[in-house]
Amino acid sequence: MDESISYLVERIKEEMFSPSADMLSFLPPSPYETAWVAMVAGPQSPHRPMFPQCLEWIIRHQREEGYWGELGNPMDSLTSTLACVVALNAWDTGHANIEKGLGFLRANMVKLLMEHRGGIPQWFSIVFPGMLELALAKGLPVLPDGGSMPAVNNVFNRRETILTMEKYSGNDRHPPLTSFLEALPISCRPNHEVILRLQMEDGSLFHSPSATACAFMITGDRNCLEYLQTMMKRCSNVVPSVFPVDEDLIKLCLVDHLRRLGCGEHFAEEIRGVMDHTYRYGIVWLLQLVVNHYQIYIYIYIQLLQ
């Protein structure tokens, strides 16, 4: 038994703390982001997906119940499932997966919205209506039969309130609504010139794979495409919620996770090394984080990696 524990400890040390450890391999994949990257057509072959491996991932990672996303996170499961069925439908593949996903949506959408109607986050109020509209525009029967659905209408009304407030806020929101470019109504999307002006140095929009994929579909900008290609290569064909991510932060999350599991004593030296590095360089990193508000997305991973 002790030998088995020692073997596992050494293996974890090698995978997490060695100089050759690939921190990005610990990032959880996002079905929603994967679906948007899967929708990108090849520049030379518009009738074929640029990243077919994303479609394969979607087909392989549908939950038994029919949804995509995290167990126990209904908001994520609704938006991810909508995006995944739209992506599969776009390339006329995964028909059984589509039907299973549609079945989940029709059976659970209203119930989940009703259960969480008092705690719907702002991102969901933008993304859910946008994805629902996209699915309906593609002819996908995502809504249950039965006429009026106050729970769904409530989210649309909340989106309208947010969009109206945005017009009078001076675009000071962080993150800005354009970071959800793919989910914005067509009438609220910026033009090509503004989209390209929002690009970051790596070619992305706010380090968001989904927003960048949408930006490429709209503009055909090569820098957007190169960002997506780099991400797919660097993350071993897995699409995270945000890219790039500070690798020191990932390491801190892993250290925290090990300590929460009660395994810290087996990695005392490695944890001390990570903490020393953080104390030495963390102040500079935090100052940079404050300057770049959009990096706040990275904090999502603190929860995802727990």
From TrEMBL:
Check the record and name the SUPFAM superfamilies matching this protein. Answer: Terpenoid cyclases/Protein prenyltransferases
Keywords linked to the UniProt accession: Magnesium
Give an example GO molecular function: terpene synthase activity
The record's section on Gene3D superfamilies has: 1.50.10.160, Terpene synthase, N-terminal domain
Report which superkingdom the organism of origin falls in: Eukaryota
Q: Which GO terms describe its biological process?
A: diterpenoid biosynthetic process
Q: What cofactors does this protein use? A: Mg(2+)
Statement: the UniProt record of this protein carries the keyword DNA repair: no
Give the transmembrane region(s).
none
Q: What is this protein called?
A: (wild Malaysian banana) hypothetical protein
Q: Supply the source organism's classification.
A: Eukaryota, Viridiplantae, Streptophyta, Embryophyta, Tracheophyta
